[in-house]
Every structure is written in structure tokens, then in C-alpha cells.
Design a protein that fits this description.
By secondary structure, the protein is an all-alpha fold. It is built from 3 helices and no strands. Helix 1 (35-54) runs antiparallel to helix 3. The longest helix is centred in the last third of the chain and has 26 residues, at 78-103. 1% of the residues are buried. The mean pLDDT is 75.
Length: 105
């Protein structure tokens, strides 16, 4: 039996009836995802996609074939706030993803 030779026995729940180590089938392993984190990440994903699409410049055929002007200009007003909002959404999305990954188990 495990532990007779001075080694530590396997953790509880991993041994079968004969004392041998039992390997769990992937279908037996359950992961509980926090529904609040999942819904929050989905909503943040949708908002992030919308914010990115609202910033698209040169859409249409002229932008596809290089018709967009290459002149640099700074963001002002609503465009600047949308850029900052997109960055905040991105940071929140990464935070939710890391928290969700940490608490799954």
C-alpha cells in the first residue's frame, strides 16, 4: 500500500479501492465558472468590439485601395474620449479574464 515505504500517500480521492492511484477521466473533472465573471466578460467583449468599430477610419472601398489620407492628426473631443474609453474597456477585459482564470477550479 502507498506510504509503506516511507513515502507520502497520494491525496485523498485519487486512490481506488485497492489503494492504487486512480486517474480521472476528463469527463469527471468539473470546472465551475462564476456566472457573474462570464457575463461581465461577454458584455465587455461586445462593448470593446463596438468601441473599436466606431473608431474605424477609411471604411469603404476608398480605404481598401489606399484612398485614406496618410496625414497624421491628433485625436480631439469625442474621438479622444472614445480612444480612452476603448483602453479602459481593454484593461477591464484583461482583468476579468485573469480573475476568471484564477478562480476557475
Amino acid at each position: 500500500m502507498a506510504g509503506d515505504d516511507g513515502s507520502e500517500p497520494p491525496p485523498a480521492g485519487l486512490t481506488g479501492p485497492s489503494g492504487t492511484i486512480r486517474v480521472r477521466h476528463p469527463s469527471e473533472v468539473t470546472h465551475s465558472v462564476n456566472p457573474i465573471l462570464a457575463i461581465g466578460q461577454i458584455l465587455l467583449s461586445i462593448a470593446l468590439i463596438a468601441a473599436i468599430l466606431l473608431q474605424a477610419r477609411g471604411t469603404g472601398l476608398s480605404g481598401t485601395f489606399g484612398g485614406d489620407s496618410a496625414v497624421y492628426r491628433s485625436r480631439r473631443g469625442v474621438e479622444r474620449r472614445l480612444w480612452q474609453f476603448t483602453i479602459v474597456l481593454l484593461v477591464l477585459w484583461v482583468f476579468f479574464a485573469l480573475v476568471s482564470f484564477t478562480f476557475v477550479g
